[in-house]
Design a protein that fits this description.
Glucose Permease (Domain IIA), 8-stranded antiparallel beta sheet, 3-stranded antiparallel beta sheet, 14 strands
């Protein structure tokens, strides 16, 4: 954020100092100020009431449900799971939150491509970070922070064995991206394709 502010400040100074045409410098100056405001909003961590626990899986991030289906997760779970994909665009807050209460049983970062996050192949080929949480009852929920076409940095606080609580911040993805959830087959889904969800306060499923 400081880098964005600095670049915009330098650009605004140069515009006001060296560009005499008002019809050029003032629209550009307002545009740069808008970028600063958007970046401030984009990185906000909202203060929301958590609704998740060790049975209720809540949204990791804001976004739109773009896919629901049964898949075989071969990386860690090595079994069939219900996958729910939530796409985040440029206007969604990108702070990420633990979806369920439990302990981190697995976490792994994978470098990769940066194709558009809503494409199906992006789930395997894009840069991503996988984290699994085991609830006190032994159920495992895995989620994947997936970089998009413009996202170039995934932040995840997970460490093996870490105790986590649903609704607390677990990281952030910079710019447009996606979250994939891998849920037990007997999970009761509480969303459908096209739903808009909010991190912390939207229920994804019950397990």
């Amino acid at each position: 954020m400081l880098l964005v502010y600095l670049v915009c400040a330098v650009a605004i100074f140069l515009l006001l100092r060296f560009v005499p045409q008002g019809w050029i410098k003032w629209p550009l100056t307002l545009g740069l100020l808008w970028v600063c405001g958007w970046q401030t909003y984009f990185h906000m961590v909202p203060d929301r009431k958590p609704v998740g626990d060790n049975h209720r899986v809540t949204a990791v991030s804001d976004g739109k449900v773009v896919h629901i289906g049964k898949v075989f997760e071969s990386g860690y779970l090595k079994r069939e799971a219900l996958m729910v994909s939530v796409y985040m665009d440029f206007w969604d807050l990108h702070a990420n939150f633990w979806p369920v209460t439990g302990a981190v049983s697995y976490t792994q970062y994978f470098p990769g491509k940066h194709m558009l996050a809503f494409k199906p192949k992006a789930s395997e080929e894009n840069e991503h970070c996988c984290t699994a949480i085991r609830t006190p009852e032994g159920k495992e929920v895995m989620f994947k922070q997936l970089a998009g076409g413009f996202a170039r940095r995934i932040v995840c606080y997970a460490k093996p064995g870490m105790a986590v609580r649903a609704g607390e911040q677990c990281g952030i993805i910079k710019f447009g991206s996606r979250i994939d959830y891998y849920l037990p087959l007997d999970a009761q889904l509480r969303v459908k394709v096209g739903d808009l969800v909010k991190g912390v306060s939207s229920l994804i499923a019950e397990i």
